[in-house]
Every structure is written in structure tokens, then in C-alpha cells.
Design goal:
Structural class: alpha/beta
CATH class of the largest domain: Alpha Beta
CATH superfamily of the largest domain: P-loop containing nucleotide triphosphate hydrolases
Radius of gyration: 29 Å
Helix content: 40-55%
Order of helices and strands: EEHEEEHEHHHHHHEHEEHEEEHHHHH
Number of helices: 15
Distance between the termini: 14 Å
Shape: flat
Strand order of the largest sheet: 3-4-5-2-1-6
Oligomer: single chain
């Protein structure tokens, strides 16, 4: 997929029936094609909205709506763009797009509008990826992170690292190429400090990888416990509606149920699981095995204990890695044997204690908005791989200097670090990288 000089078209609003639909053209023939389909009336001036009808080849009206045009390079894609806002019916939208294709446009591929924006210098790769993050943001923090990345914050920080490494590389290679000039290569402590500083900056960006995964995917939160302690009730209460079946019969939940809830700006991917107990039921045993598998992959485990039954010690083994929060449910029916037991008490029936529960989850994960406000850059898996390569290359360069190896070896490692950092914003690009990124976009973006 590349900007090959043709004009593309796609619906830029969600597919399906709606009040309105937005159809976008981008390419050198955008205005010419638009003019063909509206008949004898002229298009409105650039950046001015005008009401026009779209007619078929026989002059029959297909739809009537608003046209607006943007002249490149002052447009989203950097090309001439024309947009039509019409009625949102499935059939009428399809007929409009068919008419535009008949007039000379071709259907856009997923992400092609944003790819053209990148190829025309309107966005770097981090900003292009932020477009999809912005669309899919489920919480205020995810939205803030995507917005700041769209404004170029991550790309700017990577460019600062790259510029400093480029300066160090140029200085070192000048010494290699012109030793007779006696250029000070700052090979000693000064150059090492310079590389160490950039390594620390890279480590700081890598530290946001988990944050980025959580913002995009949510915290994998497994609701865990014995049968009939209120796991499904907890899921329903956090969601605000009845998603899971609640019954006094033990073993009602046989399969895992997964939903996303917003807690203090962070998406929790809640997973309700089968109650853990000894069982001879083959289906229930399978459900319990799935529960253990979910716990092993969890970021957070909410262990639910029933206060309405006489106290007994939990026999659950806690796997390493996941954070664990014990929740005492049914506080409105607490058995006397639990007197003096400290812990977070809630009642899924009355809603008591749920504010404290949200505060405790935010504290355990350190994921409240106040904490994340200064750490809003969140790298994705592609960024993480590039940063890991850059850090490794820098560590090799630093080690090369410390061991007194020839400066050529240090220079090669610095160049590798430069290449890896450049890939993040698209300074060094390949067709494979671009294809992987933009293939994940939706049609019309």
C-alpha cells in the first residue's frame, strides 16, 4: 500500500445505519471526481461548506448533503481532500461510494488515509499509531495518552535521543576519518556520560511499556474464590448491570466471563471465573482448570471471601507476579467468627464498601490519574522492541569504550542504536514496518 498518485475513497464514519455518514476522497483528482458526481453546480470554495446533490450517470439524485474540500498540503493527508456528509443509511452510503468509484476513485485500503498523511510528512509513525489509540480509547487516561502522542510527544522525545546520539556518532566518526586533524572525539568519560544519559532516557521510555499495554488492553483482573462467595455479584456491581448469572446454587459459573470497567481512569478487564473447589463434575473441573490458567496470566487477582459463613483459612496458593487483593464480601451478613479480622469489607447486595474498593485497587496498582499525570507517554509493543534494540546497542558501545576497543566498533553500535530509535518515528522506514502498522487500521482512517 503506497500513495501512488491515484484518488481513494472510503466511508470515514462507522459502518452501518446512522443519522449521517461521512465519505472521504483523497488524492489529486478529489475535486474533479466530486464535481463529476454533483452535476452542473460548482463545488463550494475550499474550506467552505455547501449543500449539493449527488446524481448518477443518468442525472437521478442519489443523495443530498454537505460537501467541503481541503487543498493540499493543508489537509489531513497532505493531499487534496473532499468530504461528503450525507444520510447514514446503508444502501444510500453504498450507492454514493459506488458512484464516486465510477467517477474515477478507487476504494481505500485499511489505514490508507493515515498512511498518506505519514508519507506526506503530516504525521510521524508514533502520531499515526496514536490515531487508532485515540479511536479505541476507553478511559480518560487512555484518551489523554493517545492525544499527547498524536501531538507528537513520544516522537519528540525519541527525536531528542536520536539527535544526541547522532551528534556523538558524528564526533566519533570524524575522529576515525580524520585522525591527523586531532579532533577531540570525547572518547573518554564525556562521551560515555553522553551515551549513559541517552541509555537512561531510553530506559525511562521502556518503563512505560506496561503502562501502555494497560491503557490499550486493560488490567487483566481475575475474580477468584470458592463457589458462591459473590464473584459474579462483584462483576455485576462493578459493571453497573447484571452481566453474569447470580444464583445460590454452587457451581453456576462454569466458563469465564470477561468485561471491561473503568476504575479511576484505568480499564480493568474483569474476568469472572468458576469457583474453586473439589469436584467430580467433568464440566466444572474444566472450568476450574480455566480459572487457574486465568490466574497465572493475571495482572491483578481479586480474591473474594464470604463473611456470611463461619471463618476458615484460605488454602489458595498465590502465583508470583500478579498483585493480590483479598475482598471480604457480604459484610451485611457477617458471621461472628470474623470479628477482629482486618481487611476490605464490601457488600455486593447493598453496595457498601465499593468506594473503598476502587481506592484500594488504584493504590495497589498505582494507576490513579494523579500518579499517571506526569507519565502519559506510553509505548506500544513495536516501540518497545525498537527501544530494547537501541538500549542493547548502546550498552555494547559503552562496553566497547570501557574495554578500549577500536573506535570503529563503538561507531557501529552507535549506528545500530540510531537506526532502532529512528524506526520508532519512521525516520528509517521499511515497507514491512508500514504494512504491519497500517494493516491494523479500520477502513476510512
Amino acid at each position: 500500500m503506497a500513495s501512488d498518485g491515484d484518488t481513494i475513497v472510503a466511508i470515514a464514519s462507522p459502518a452501518g445505519m446512522g443519522a449521517v455518514s461521512l465519505i472521504r476522497l483523497s488524492g489529486p483528482q478529489s475535486c474533479e471526481i466530486a464535481q463529476k458526481v454533483i452535476g452542473f453546480r460548482a463545488l463550494p470554495p475550499a474550506r467552505k461548506v455547501g449543500l449539493r446533490s449527488i446524481v448518477d450517470a443518468e442525472g437521478l439524485v442519489i443523495d443530498e448533503g454537505l460537501w467541503v474540500t481541503f487543498s493540499g498540503p493543508a489537509s489531513y493527508t497532505g493531499e487534496d481532500v473532499a468530504e461528503f456528509t450525507g444520510h447514514g443509511g446503508v444502501m444510500v452510503t453504498r450507492k454514493v461510494i459506488e458512484r464516486l468509484i465510477e467517477a474515477g476513485a478507487r476504494p481505500a485500503e485499511p489505514g490508507e488515509f493515515t498512511q498518506r498523511a505519514f508519507l506526506n510528512g503530516r504525521l510521524d509513525l508514533t502520531q499515526a499509531e496514536a490515531v487508532m489509540d485515540l479511536i479505541s480509547a476507553q478511559t480518560s487516561l487512555a484518551l489523554r495518552s493517545a492525544t499527547e502522542q498524536l501531538e507528537g510527544r513520544l516522537g519528540q522525545r525519541c527525536e531528542e535521543i536520536r539527535a544526541d546520539l547522532l551528534g556523538a556518532t558524528a564526533h566519533l566518526e570524524a575522529y576515525i576519518d580524520f585522525p591527523e586533524e586531532d579532533i577531540d572525539p570525547a572518547v573518554g568519560e564525556a562521551l560515555q556520560m553522553r551515551m549513559n544519559d541517552q541509555r537512561e532516557k531510553i530506559a525511562g521510555l521502556l518503563a512505560t511499556a506496561d503502562q501502555g499495554r494497560i491503557l490499550r488492553e486493560g488490567v487483566r483482573t481475575v475474580i477468584y474464590g470458592k463457589p458462591n462467595v459473590g464473584k459474579s455479584s462483584l462483576l455485576n456491581r462493578l459493571l453497573g448491570y447484571q452481566r453474569a448469572i447470580v444464583s445460590s446454587i454452587e457451581g453456576t459459573t462454569r466458563d469465564t466471563i470477561e468485561e471491561v470497567v473503568n476504575v479511576r481512569g484505568i480499564p480493568l478487564r474483569l474476568i469472572d471465573t468458576a469457583g474453586v473447589r473439589e469436584s467430580s463434575d467433568e464440566i466444572e473441573i474444566t472450568g476450574i482448570e480455566m480459572t487457574h490458567a486465568q490466574v497465572s496470566r493475571a495482572d491483578l487477582v481479586l480474591e473474594v471471601i464470604d463473611l456470611s459463613k463461619p471463618r476458615c483459612d484460605s488454602s489458595f496458593s498465590r502465583p508470583e507476579g500478579a498483585k493480590w487483593l483479598v475482598i471480604y464480601n457480604k459484610s451485611d451478613k457477617e458471621d461472628a467468627s470474623w470479628a477482629g479480622q482486618e481487611g476490605l469489607r464490601i457488600s455486593c447486595e447493598t453496595g457498601e464498601g465499593f468506594k473503598d474498593l476502587e481506592e484500594e485497587i488504584a493504590r495497589i496498582l498505582a494507576l490513579d490519574e494523579a500518579h499517571w499525570g506526569v507519565h502519559s507517554v506510553a509505548v506500544n509493543a513495536r516501540h518497545q522492541a525498537c527501544l530494547d534494540r537501541a538500549r542493547t546497542a548502546l550498552e555494547i558501545a559503552i562496553s566497547s569504550m570501557e574495554q578500549g576497543e577500536e573506535p570503529e566498533f563503538t561507531s557501529l553500535s552507535l549506528r545500530e542504536a540510531l537506526s532502532a530509535i529512528g524506526e520508532i518515528a519512521g525516520v528509517v522506514d521499511t515497507e514491512d514496518i508500514l504494512g504491519e502498522i497500517f494493516s491494523n487500521f479500520c477502513i476510512g482512517k
